[in-house]
Amino acid sequence: MALPPSIVAAFQAALLSGLSNFLAQILAAWKASKPFELAIAPILRFFIFTLVTTPPNYKWQAFLERSFPTYPTVSLRESKKTDDISLKEKAPVSPIGAPGVPVEPGRINKGNIARKLLLDQGCAGPINNAIFIIGMGVLNGNPWEQIQWNLGRDFWRFQFAGWKLWPLVALISFSVVPFERRVLFGSLVSLGWTIYLSLLIGEV
Fold first, then answer.
1. Greatest extent of the chain over all pairs of C-alpha atoms, in Å
2. What is the mean pLDDT of each run of 10 residues along the chain (204 residues)?
3. What is the pTM of this model?
4. % of the chain with per-residue pLDDT over 90
5. For residue 58, is it left (φ>0), alpha (ψ between -120 and 50) or beta?
6. Contacting residues for 50 by C-beta, under 8 A, at least 6 apart
7. Which of 62, 63, 45 is nearest to 9 (CA)?
8. Cα separation, 69 vs 105, whole angstroms
C-alpha cells in the first residue's frame, strides 16, 4: 500500500533536515579549527521537527494551488491524486475569474501566482518561523519563559533573512514546479537554509 504523498514528502524533508544539521556541525568544526565530533541530539531534533511540520505545510501548498491554480482552466485529469487536490477531478473555475473576462486555456495565470506568493510569504512564512523557534525550544526542553525570550530575540532576524531567499524560491515553485514536487523542491533549498539556521541558533 502506497504511503500518502504528504507522508512521503515529510520523510524526504526530515532526512534532508537532519543531513543539513550534520553538515552544519562539520562546517562549525572547520570554522573553529576543532576536531569534528558528531552530536546526534540536534540532528534528531531537526529530523523530528521537520517530520511533524511538513504535512501541514503540504496541506497549505495544496490549499493554495486549489484556490489559486497556476493553470486555472487546464484539466487536471492527467495528474495523480494528492492528499488535498484530487488531480483526477475537473479543475475548479478560477477564483478570480469574472464574467466576460475569460482566462485562455493552458496559459499561466500570473495573478494567481502573485496571490499565492503574497499569502505564502506574508502569512505562512512568519508563522513557520515562529513555530520553528517555539518547536526547537520545546524539543530542547527549554522552559516557556526561555522560549518566549528566544522568540522575541530571533523572530525578526529569521524573518528578514528568510525574505532574502524564500520569495524567489516560492516564485520559481509556483511558476514552474509541479505541485507534487514543490515540497521536495523546497526541502532541497532548505538544505542550505537549515545549515544557516543551525549555525544561527547554535544547534551544532
1. 68
2. 87 94 91 90 95 95 94 55 46 40 64 96 95 94 95 92 93 92 90 85 66
3. 0.78
4. 62
5. alpha
6. 10, 13, 14, 16, 17, 18
7. 62
8. 12
